[in-house]
Write a structure and sequence with these properties.
The complex is a heterodimer of chains A (about 300) and B (about 260). With about 300 residues, chain A is an alpha/beta fold. Chain A folds into 2 domains: about 5-220, Rossmann fold; about 220-300, UreE, C-terminal domain (Alpha-Beta Plaits), CATH 3.30.70. Chain A is about 35% helix and about 30% strand. Chain A contains 11 helices and 14 strands. Chain A is elongated, with a radius of gyration of 23 Å. Chain A starts with a strand and ends with a helix. The model of chain A has no long low-confidence stretch (mean pLDDT about 85). Chain B has about 260 residues and is mostly helical. Chain B is about 75% helix and about 0% strand. Chain B contains 10 helices and no strands. In chain B, helix 7 packs antiparallel against helix 9. The radius of gyration of chain B is 19 Å and the shape is globular. The chains are: A alpha/beta (about 300), B mainly alpha (about 260).
Chain lengths: ~300, ~260
């Protein structure tokens, strides 16, 4: 069996003259949590739909769990998915909605109640779906995705509408699943969430993959930043000038001077500021967050 | 395919849909059959479009199922609405993607859904038959209609024949609804267009040019339920109705199989 849960090469989707996904190539190893990020309209959902056999590919090849994406019937029984938010029958209860999907997939009905409890809907399973809050709908969507006891779980924006506690629960759930060997392919616009849970990352821009690999490797490639705050706000411009005169790229962001440089410049910068009569209230050398890296790479 | 059918039956058995539909079936089956006997002496007629159906006709072996046969096209319209709504709602709710992830074979989804809806239609027809025939038996003495022939071998054969014809007609209407649901992907558009065509457009066309009736889908499917009409021979209605259903089903199934699921 392949060591890759997902492997696609030159995956392309055109809608007439518009290119939604262009020659996307990436791999996702088994048992990892892979974040799938990109600006709105970058082709994330179209890619997910192609992987699930909902949208025909214009070109390229791919394998999911070792099976070609041209035969989704071979791998979908082992895949759980929630695409573009939860979609259920409003007049049926949450439990009945899951029963519909369990009957369809040939899964035991016995799985339904434990799954409802797992996502925190144990006591609301008999309420109609239309009475659910957005967070509850999202939880039901995750429960539905878990019905087949999946080897690969594809989640599109799973934390949409969840409160902070709910987001934390989903994060823990995803980590637990990965610990049990499930591969999780998760798209989210909450990049801090993705950074916290994803070992792997696929980044899209305008339908093209601009990075895929380990999240840590991506962040390590980025230049560190020295963030300095002065005691007096009026000194920020002077600090900026000092950094630039030292040959570094710098800017003022949110009341602090950001200097692109590794930590070796920090001591020198402190001395230069002191000589100029500026007292620093804080001085930190930090690596850019995924969000900052994302903005830099996507040009958003 | 049976997994799909069982899953679809779970949706069809929800109380608002099941009880609402069956309630309408009971009410209209009872009403249509009752009027046949209660208005037997009315100068305005007791049949559809003001036709007069006298005691001697109702006393024939087919008299007991006369009301049931005439309610057939109404049952057809109900089936059209249910089949169209059940199919198109998968697009409007976005649930089609869930179905296709759990059952990637689109043809199995279609055939399974159709099988479940056929079961629903058969329950509807059985209920209509029970109500309609019971109402006829109860009201015949009051209308002074002789029912001796209803219980003869020919009468029993008429019940079976009408039952089969109504089922064929109702399922035909239902498949038309399913086709409209697949084409329009919206329950409101599919149902309104279907009902508008069957109840208004076809009647207007027939009023303007009577021989168009021979080639209209609704007229032919309705004629099947009645075992043929004075203007539409049963065999002709069966062939034209089947042609509409088969061609429409092939086109809709082809589209469903090839179309991307983007919502």
């Amino acid at each position: 069996m392949s060591e890759l849960a997902i492997s696609v090469k030159d995956l392309t989707k055109n809608y007439g003259a518009r290119v939604a996904v262009s020659h996307a190539t990436f791999d996702v190893p088994y048992g990892t949590i892979c974040g799938f990020v990109g600006p709105n309209g970058s082709g994330k959902t179209t890619t997910i739909r192609m992987l699930l056999g909902l949208v025909r590919t214009t070109g390229g090849t791919g394998e999911i769990l070792g099976e070609s994406i041209t035969h989704p019937e071979k791998y979908l029984p082992k895949v759980g998915a929630m695409i573009e938010g939860p979609a259920f029958y409003p007049a049926l209860s949450g439990k009945e909605n899951l029963n519909v999907l369990a009957a369809l997939g040939g899964f035991s009905k016995e799985r339904v109640q434990p799954l409802l409890e797992k996502v925190g809907l144990g006591d609301r399973g008999n309420s109609k779906f239309k009475t659910y809050s957005l967070g509850m709908k999202q939880r039901l969507g995750i429960a539905a995705a878990l019905l087949p006891n999946p080897k690969l779980l594809v989640l599109d924006e799973p934390t949409n509408g969840l409160d902070p506690a709910g987001i934390q629960e989903v994060r823990e759930l995803i980590r637990d699943l990965a610990t049990d060997g499930t591969t999780v392919f998760v798209s989210s616009h909450l990049l801090s969430e993705i950074e916290m849970i994803s070992e792997y990352l696929v980044m899209l821009r305008e339908g093209k993959v601009i990075f895929y690999g380990k999240t840590a490797e991506l962040l390590a490639q980025q230049q560190p930043v020295i963030v300095a705050k002065s005691k007096r706000a009026t000194d920020l411009k002077k600090l900026l000038k000092i950094a630039k005169n030292s040959g570094h790229s710098a800017s003022i962001i949110a009341g602090a001077v950001h200097v692109i440089s590794d930590s070796s410049f920090a001591a020198e910068f402190n001395e230069l500021a002191f000589d100029a009569g500026i007292t620093l209230s804080s001085l930190n050398a930090v690596l850019p967050t995924l969000e900052e890296t994302f903005f830099e790479m996507t040009g958003e | 395919m049976w997994h799909v059918a069982f899953s679809e039956l779970r949706k069809l058995r929800r109380p608002s849909l099941f009880l609402g539909t069956m309630g309408a079936v009971v009410f209209f089956s009872g009403l249509f059959s009752s009027l046949l006997f209660l208005l037997i002496d009315s100068p305005q007629g007791n049949g559809d479009r003001g036709r007069m159906i006298g005691r001697e006709i109702l006393a024939l072996p087919t008299g007991g199922v006369r009301g049931f046969a005439s309610v057939g096209s109404f049952l057809g319209i109900i089936a059209l609405c249910v089949f169209a709504a059940q199919t198109a709602q998968e697009y409007t709710y976005g649930t089609l993607r869930n179905l296709l992830v759990r059952q990637p074979s689109r043809m199995k989804i279609l055939i399974g859904k159709l099988a479940a809806m056929k079961i629903f239609a058969i329950i509807m027809v059985i209920l209509a038959a029970l109500v309609s025939i019971s109402a006829s038996i109860l009201l015949a003495p009051r209308a002074k209609v002789n029912t001796d022939l209803w219980f003869s071998a020919a009468g029993k054969s008429a019940i079976l024949e009408t039952f089969v014809n109504v089922i064929i007609s109702v399922i035909g209407f239902g498949i038309v609804g399913m086709i409209l649901g697949l084409l329009f992907r919206s329950p409101i558009s599919a149902i309104s267009l279907g009902v508008l065509w069957l109840l208004i457009v076809e009647n207007l066309l027939v009023a303007v040019k009577s021989n168009t009736e021979k080639w209209l889908p609704g007229s032919n499917l309705s004629a099947i339920a009645q075992g043929g009409t004075p203007t539409l021979e049963y065999k002709h209605a069966l062939i034209v109705g089947a042609a509409y259903v088969i061609v429409g089903a092939l086109v809709a199934a082809g589209l469903f199989k090839r179309r991307d699921v983007s919502n």
